[in-house]
Amino acid sequence: MLITLAGFLGPALLTLFAFRILPTVLAGYQSLQTRGGIGFANYVDLWTSPTFLNSIKVTLIYNLVLNPLQIVIAIALALLLNQSVPGRTLGRIAVFLPVAAPLAVASLVWGIAMRPSDGALNAILGALGIGAQPWLTSADQALMSIMIIVTWAGVGYWTVFLIAGLREIPDELYEAATIDGAGWWKCLFFVTLPMLKRTILFVLVANTVGNFLVFAPVQILTRGGPQGSTNLFIHEIYQLGFSFADMPAASAGVVLLLVCMLLFVAAQFRLLRSE
């Protein structure tokens, strides 16, 4: 039995070690490499760098806004697509279809649609009597534009998990709530959401990790601009490692990114832990 278990788990554990644990350990070691030997100079340099501190601020804003927004949209779509209504299958396909497109490809398409001069979005706004927007070329709108792209590309993925969670809720609970006089809203807040708590926690944690690692839209469309408004944490690490060839500093950034992700995830577990 032990040999069978090792045969099943061995490849997965080996892959986890080779592509997750080992790179993390090596990044931690490399982050301590300085010109004078071993030390924390790379961390000190990062914390005194205005560009790096700005990337932390941008990333925090990005996650604090985007994570709840995506979860709310995904829950709303799951509730809608879980109803027995005509066209439900077509609606599910339409919601999940963007997930099939690589984020890099989706970024290119959205970049064309968001062109200030001849983009499709401004054409639609013009038809509605709304003035053209700068989108990705504006320091005030660029981060919001990245959020739109990431939400369009990924919210369908989380909707599927939430639909699966909804289908696991026993009908008897809704019947009992209806007998007690509960309407749709009371059923939502006192039956549906509490029963979805574990699914929502999983989606929130996985979505948070994914959003911390979003790179393609920023690199393809803005390269961290304008004026650093979309310079996310992961993009700043890329810049340090590959644009400035400072791998120890980039490794220190990776360690700090891991710490930030763990803190976010721990806070979410704390907020949504089972009573």
TrEMBL record:
Transmembrane segments: 60-81, 93-113, 143-164, 200-221, 249-272
CDD domains, per the entry: TM_PBP2
Gene3D superfamilies: MetI-like (1.10.3720.10)
Subcellular location(s) per record: Cell membrane
Keyword list, A-Z: Cell membrane, Membrane, Transmembrane, Transmembrane helix, Transport
Membrane-topology descriptor: Multi-pass membrane protein
InterPro entries: ABC_transporter_permease, MetI-like, MetI-like_sf
One GO biological process term: transmembrane transport
Annotated ABC transmembrane type-1 domain residues: 56-267
GO cellular component: plasma membrane
PROSITE patterns, per database record: ABC_TM1 (PS50928)
Top-level taxon of origin: Bacteria
Protein family membership: Belongs to the binding-protein-dependent transport system permease family.
The protein's name: Sugar ABC transporter permease
